[in-house]
Specification:
Muramoyl-pentapeptide Carboxypeptidase, domain 2; 2 domains; four-stranded antiparallel β-sheet; 9 helices; elongated
């Protein structure tokens, strides 16, 4: 092999190596870019932002119904059968289902004994309570006053909202109702439900202690009410 030919070959080899290094560099750069893009998926641009819930969307959850605040049905109010022939506002069914499933998983036997009531049904309940008092020998005036401590006047019962339920046990021997009440008082807020008439708040709510009566207010409000120990009237007046 002549020296001249060897030099020519050597130059060709060098330019081949230069091209190979150049191609390799481009490949490495492309791989790096792909890796950076992939890593970026773990940190989306909207990372850390809270979902926006408009006031209007959740106002129905916090409707206040008591002796001073009558109920008037608004758009979106549509009672549907949940269990045991009892109706509730269709919007609370998913949360209610989850709560009942969790309660049953813990070995309890919750049962809805009363939920949505029409104003006519509320009238019948109040009248029956007055009759019961009269039969027990209470004067007519006192009978009405006492009955109103147990059952609200039509238009003023939370049961008319479809957001309130009386929950007991379906089998008192196997599972006493007090165990169902205790479970609901402890876990209800996780599903958006509160014990509506606590024992220590009868002066504010105007209703006797009802360990079976639970009211849907949405998860955020329920957890705030439970942790601060207020009742719905106090919670709403402090907002
Ligand atoms: Zn009730």
């Amino acid at each position: 092999m002549s020296v001249r030919y060897a030099k020519k070959n050597d130059r060709r080899m060098r330019s081949l190596i230069t091209i190979a290094v150049f191609v390799l560099l481009i490949v490495v750069l492309l791989i790096c870019q792909l890796c950076l893009k992939g890593g970026g998926d773990d940190f989306p641009e909207d990372f850390g932002e809270e979902p926006v819930v408009s006031e209007e969307d959740s106002s129905w959850q916090l409707v206040l119904v008591n002796r001073d605040h009558p109920f008037s049905p608004q758009t979106g109010f549509s009672p549907v059968v949940f269990e045991n022939g009892q109706k509730v506002d269709s919007r609370i069914v998913p949360a209610l289902k989850k709560m009942f499933e969790a309660c049953r998983r813990d070995g309890l036997l919750p049962c809805v004994t009363s939920a949505y009531r029409s104003p006519e049904q509320q009238r019948q309940i109040l009248d029956a309570k007055v009759e019961e008092m009269l039969a027990a020998g209470v004067s007519e005036k006192d009978a009405v006053t006492e009955a109103l401590g147990w059952a609200a006047e039509p238009g003023h019962s939370e049961h008319e909202t479809g957001l309130a339920l009386d929950i007991n046990s379906s089998n008192e021997k196997k599972c006493p109702s007090r165990r169902v009440y205790a479970w609901l008082a402890e876990h209800g807020a996780e599903y958006g439900f509160i014990l509506r008439y606590p024992e220590e708040k009868t002066a504010v709510t105007g209703v006797e202690y009802e360990p079976w009566h639970f009211r849907y207010v949405g998860r955020k409000a329920a957890e705030e009410i439970r942790s601060s120990g207020v009742c719905l009237e106090e919670y709403l007046s402090g907002r």
